[in-house]
Design brief:
Elements (H helix, E strand, L loop, with lengths): L1 H31 L2 H14 L1 E12 L3 E12 L2 H21 L7 E10 L11 E11 L2 H15 L3 E9 L4 H25 L4 E11 L4 E2 L21 E13 L1
Antiparallel strand pairs: 1-8, 2-4, 2-5, 3-4, 6-8, 7-8
Helix pairs in contact: 3-4
Length: about 250
């Protein structure tokens, strides 16, 4: 009997911690299953509910600025001769533009190059070629073609015309118009998604803008030209700016 009593007491001592653990687990399970907690999960889900969409918007206008890439290129047996001839032609180009009303601030050196000429044997022994490139902003489309022609004529055989592009001096109004269109596009998409899931569209929570490149117009003239030019006809067409608005709305 004494030994039986000792075994019984020992067993009770060993089982006591296990019973405590079982009781705690049962209490935790009851707490998780409680009605108050069941309603908390949907509340959190409702707070996180939302829809994120991207809307695009564009705005167009007739360009009011011409950007021409002009330059001068010359070859000579020596470095000084090539650089000097190209520099003289570039100066004549700038001078005629300024004389005809172009602001010097609208004439910028875009690059200066000097490289050797190679003979039939592949050796750099045939002289040197120098080139200067100028980016010119012309703010009157009506006279831009005449100005370009006059500049090329002033540069003579060394003159180069690499390209013409169009732009809008102040894009602010176009950007604002594109944003309005992008936001309206995003709202229309969000309203459709809300309807599809049986909810109502709430308030916008966040907005992120991804602006497109600046206004750029096609058309115009591009090519390597030298010598006198009778005229340069420019077709500005239209320029376009675009933007994308990524908007997140809450759902009710």
């Amino acid at each position: 009997r004494g030994r039986l009593l000792e075994v019984t007491v020992l067993t009770a001592r060993l089982l006591a911690p296990l019973l405590v653990v079982v009781a705690l687990l049962a209490a935790a399970a009851a707490w998780i299953a409680a009605p108050g907690d069941a309603s908390a999960a949907p509340a959190r889900a409702s707070a996180d509910a939302g829809v994120t969409v991207a809307g695009t918007g564009t705005a167009t206008a007739v360009p009011d600025v011409v950007r021409a890439t002009l330059g001068a290129e010359a070859s000579a047996p020596d470095v000084d001769g090539a650089l000097g001839t190209a520099d003289d032609a570039a100066r004549r180009i700038v001078d005629v533009l300024v004389e005809r009303g172009v602001d010097r601030a609208d004439v910028q050196t875009a690059g200066v190059q000097l490289y050797p000429q190679y003979g039939p044997d592949g050796q750099p022994n045939a002289g040197y070629t120098a080139r200067q490139d100028l980016t010119v902003t012309l703010r009157d489309l009506a006279t831009a073609g005449d100005l370009i022609a006059a500049a090329v004529a002033a540069g003579g055989d060394a003159a180069r015309l690499s390209g013409v592009s169009f732009a809008i001096a102040d894009e602010t109004p176009l950007r604002a118009e594109a944003r309005e269109e992008a936001f309206a596009d995003a709202r229309a998409k969000a309203e459709q998604y809300a309807e599809l899931v049986g909810r109502e569209l709430g308030e916008p929570v966040s907005v992120r803008e991804d602006a497109g490149p600046g206004a750029y117009g096609g058309g115009g003239f591009s090519g390597e030209s030298a010598g006198a030019m009778a005229d340069v006809n420019l077709a500005p067409g239209t320029s376009e700016v675009s933007t994308t608005a990524t908007v997140r709305w809450s759902l009710r």
